[in-house]
Amino acid sequence: MRALLTAIRFLTRVPVPGPHAGAEELGRATIFFPVVGGLIGLLLAGVDVGTRLLWHSAPVSNALVIVTLVLVTGGLHLDGLMDICDGVFGGRDREQALQIMKDSRVGAFGVLGAICVLLLRFAFLFPLSGALKWRGLVLMAAAGRWSFVYAIARFPYARPQGTGRAFKEQVRGRHLFWASVLAVGIGACLFRVKFLPLAAIAWLAVWAQARYLSRKLGGLTGDAYGFIGEVTEVVILAAVPLATRIPWC
């Protein structure tokens, strides 16, 4: 229970009481990252249903779902995405990129990256409706948080210090295994056999991003984890309506 509360405290802005988590507790908390993502997804599904009842408008509902996601996470992962866009896609070498990513200011590439991700998320919510939409929202949030655990466990860390370093030093293969079991369980409950192509797409998206950023930066950072999570969520939203139409599923 302490590990679950630690995961909620770290991944959201929900005021969960409790002592400051130690290093070992941070490692155990990653097991429950997909569960916290699933809870966030259920919250978003509730917002979607409520706003549709009030305004009967898909654009309004989709916009408020996205706003809720930003608010409940405090924009933490979106901030990481903007830092990566400024540092990596601004055409800088490794040292310059890492230095730019430490700057609290946001540049043009960061703003453009955030706008693109938010627009894509808004657009890919439109093909979803009814039960498929709430299941897609839950899977999106769970897969996004699972991506953090995979990236932490499977790729080196780029900095000698940093927020992500504490997780990197504690996360082991067993943590990734149990996080994956929970993520697969959530996906299978939501989509049954149709989850198979979605799982493959999610893994490929996370692996490709982590490999690219690791080669550019000499490893990953906390900002990279945020970038990977944000992009993975968009990929899942795009894939849900496609995967559910596969005949053999």
Task: Please provide a written account of the structure.
This protein has helices at residues 2-11, 23-29, 33-55, 58-73, 76-87, 94-102, 108-125, 130-154, 163-170, 173-191, 195-217, 222-243. It has twelve helices and no strands. By secondary structure, it is mainly α. It is 77% helix and 0% strand. It has one domain (2-11, 22-243). Helix 4 (58-73) crosses helix 7.
Radius of gyration: 17 Å
Largest sheet: none
Mean pLDDT: 91
**What shape does the CA trace take?**
globular
CA-CA gap between termini: 36 Å
Structural class: mainly alpha
- Pick out the low-confidence regions: none
Q: Determine the strand fraction and express it as a percent band.
A: under 5%
Total individual domains? 1
Please provide the ordered H/E string of secondary-structure elements: HHHHHHHHHHHH
Count of DSSP-assigned helices: 12
What's the number of extended β-strand segments?
Answer: 0
Q: How helix-rich are the residues, as a percent range?
A: over 70%
